[in-house]
Amino acid sequence: MKALRASWRLLRLLGHIGKGLAIVALRFPALSPDQQHVRVQVWSLQLLARLGISLRIQGQPPITGPVMLVANHISWLDIPVMHAARHCRFVSKSDVQGWPLIGTLATAAGTLYIERSSRRDALRMVRSMQEALERGEVLAVFPEGTTGDGREMLPFHANLVQAAVAANAPVQPVGLRFVDKKTGVTSFAPSYIGDETLLGSIWRTLSAPAIEAVVHYGDPQLPAGRDRRVFTQDLHATVDRLRRS
């Protein structure tokens, strides 16, 4: 049954990715940015449904920007989950741009790319993020820098919060988790860490019983005199609490 369920979901997933690529190529050029954002959110919701994943939102997503969302990072699914809850522009490592299919979709969704090994590029990205916030946009980052195991969070990188400090824009902490929809127990099926392969994680997700993705929004915060390191530590503690509740 698991193999049959996974195969059916895989067929639906591939078809949905193809549909997304067609929309990006044929319809996006004629759409306004707001219309594109709506398309991305709807497509992400449909993607989750095809994977057997439902969405539960706790707290209040941002209605408008400027705001920077900071969330824990546990899976390759985190980005579509957050897009499904509320469209936002992600900051991602530059190699994602070159990934087949995924890079095209990520770019269409407004992703900002950063070369993490380059200090000069990191400074450029901070300026770009600051300018985006000053334009009133909703940005999202995973300050851990990589996926964790879903049990304990990794430290946050304070440099990713610098743009919000410079723009004096609010930062909204977000806790993410996946649970077995039937039992409510945390599901690690979508995890993607260490030596795991992306294909293995995808197949495990496709094979799993129904999963619920929980997106828990906290209250937006301003630095309020805190330097970026203290501010980042406080945000880390809040995200850790949100993902557990």
Description:
This protein is an alpha/beta fold. The protein has one domain: Glycerol-3-phosphate (1)-acyltransferase (3-Layer(aba) Sandwich). Helix content is 44%, strand content 16%. It is built from eight helices and seven strands; from the N terminus they run ααββαβαβαβαβαβα. The protein has helices at residues 2-26, 33-50, 78-85, 102-108, 119-134, 162-167, 198-207, 228-244; strands at residues 53-58, 67-71, 89-93, 112-114, 138-141, 171-180, 211-217. It has a seven-stranded mixed beta sheet, with helices on both faces. Strand 3, helix 4 and strand 4 (112-114) form a beta-alpha-beta unit. Helix 1 runs antiparallel to helix 2 (33-50) and helix 2 (33-50) crosses helix 3. The longest helix has 25 residues, at 2-26. It is globular. The two termini are 32 Å apart.
* CATH-scheme architecture: 3-Layer(aba) Sandwich
Question: In percent, how helical is the residue content?
Answer: 40-55%
Name the shape in a single word: globular
**Could you give the count of β-strands?**
7
Number of domains: 1
The whole-number mean of residue pLDDT values reads 91
Oligomer: single chain
Low-confidence stretches: none
Distance between the termini: 32 Å
Q: CATH fold name, please?
A: Glycerol-3-phosphate (1)-acyltransferase
What structural class results from the helix and strand content?
alpha/beta
The main β sheet shows up as:
7 strands, mixed
The first-level CATH class name: Alpha Beta
Strand order of the largest sheet: 1-7-6-2-5-3-4
The helix/strand order is HHEEHEHEHEHEHEH
Hey, roughly how much beta strand do the residues contain?
A: 15-25%
Count of helix runs? 8
